[in-house]
Amino acid sequence: MENKLSRRNWMKSSAALTAAAAATGPMALAQSPKNIVISSANGLQASKKAMETLRSGTDTLDAVIAGVNIVELDPNDHSVGYGGLPNEEGVVELDASVMHGPSRRCGSVAGITGCKTPSKIAQLVMTETDHIMLVGGGAAKFAREMGFKEEDLLVEDSRVAWLVWKRSMRDRAGHTNWSGELEAGPKTARMQEAFPNVDKKTLAWAMDVAVHPPTGTINCLALNSKGEMSGVTTTSGMAWKIAGRVGDSPIIGAGLYVDQDVGAAGSTGRGEENIRIAGAHTIVENMRHGMTPKEAGLDALKRVSRNFRDDKAWLSAIDIQFYALRKDGMYAGVSLWNVDASQARRRPFFAVTDGGDSRHEPCVTLYDR
Ligand code: ASP
Q: How many other β-carbons are positioned within 10 Å of the β-carbon of residue 104?
């Protein structure tokens, strides 16, 4: 009975998509779902791991979480989990959300401290409670209760970058509380003096991220050959944020949304702008009404642009990307800009794994810088 029902639903949605394709132009619909994982650009390894996990018959949500755990546990990735850049007080606060298509359930944590893998805690909120979102101290306490011991997430490079950021702060009169900062001489030399034990490469990176506070996140979406879908988004959020700032990543409907009947979407980049348009939900709804993942993502970017009166100069301060995977396996990554604000970092690519190795594919971009 259940099979018949779900088959009927699938046929209904396929028919709707086919009708939409006829209206909007050719759309290649796969005959049957296949294993496929897509992720933000930093997820090459994560999507490979998720695919291996899917292939072993594991549930789609466990698969994407296993994938992003690699990045969460990597001390050299300064935008997610352990090693993430801290808030303005030097504390690493993490956000994460998960959504499980087959059960239509979700969970999230925001501003959680002391836990390297917030995606796992978000999953436990989903499976062990009748709540959806836990924040701050409550989320951390819940993690302890679930058996996760408290850990220090601030790695040495991130601590140095935070101190360099503090030293780069000035009041309106140009004053800083840090001695020597108003002395003459090249800034790099002064910083080298202030941090004699830090190597040149780390210091150059720290000075760069102090001036261009980086964001960074991993979003990972999966579809299996049974047509089941899940997604996860996890991040340390915006570097140097005000303590307690929550971005889009843990907001169901903004940083992540999955509808088992339609598809999944997620986001990286300027969370505030995504929250204002409920990006992931917007994209899934767009796909429900017949748009391809690419069209659905570009429409979300246009809504972000509209909030800036389509003023490119105003928009140039932000970056945002969306990832969309439709239930039939069609996917896309879209980015507001072709090059990020620093003109150097984060070329707009996203990771795809549908067969063998993971690969990068270019995001479709709305604007060129
Ligand atoms: N979206 C994340 C946030 O705003 C950051 C990022 O993806 O770069 O917290």
A: 11
- Residue-wise pLDDT tens digits, 150-161: 999 999 999 999
Catalytic residue among 53, 117, 215, 217: 217
CA of 23 to the centre of ligand 1 (A): 35
CA 235 to chain centroid: 6
pLDDT tens string 109-127 = 999 999 999 999 999 999 9
Could you give the count of Cα atoms lying within 13 Å of 309 in the half-sphere of its Cβ? Answer: 3
- Ligand 1 binding pocket (C-beta < 6 A) is 215-217, 235, 237-238, 247-249, 268-271
Pairing of strands 359-362, 349-353: antiparallel
- Identify the CATH number of the domain defined by range 29-153+213-367: 3.60.20.30
Q: Among the residues of 95-135, which ranges form H helices? A: 118-128
Q: Tell me the pLDDT tens digit for each residue of 53-71.
A: 999 999 999 999 999 999 9
Pocket probe for ligand 1: among 97, 242, 245, 270, the residue whose CB has the most ligand atoms within 8 Å is 270
Domain coordinates in residue numbering, the chain: 29-153+213-367
Show the CA angle centred on residue 63, arms to residues 58 and 66, nearest 5°. Answer: 125
Judge whether 113 counts as a catalytic residue.
Answer: no
Six-digit token string for 139: 């989320």
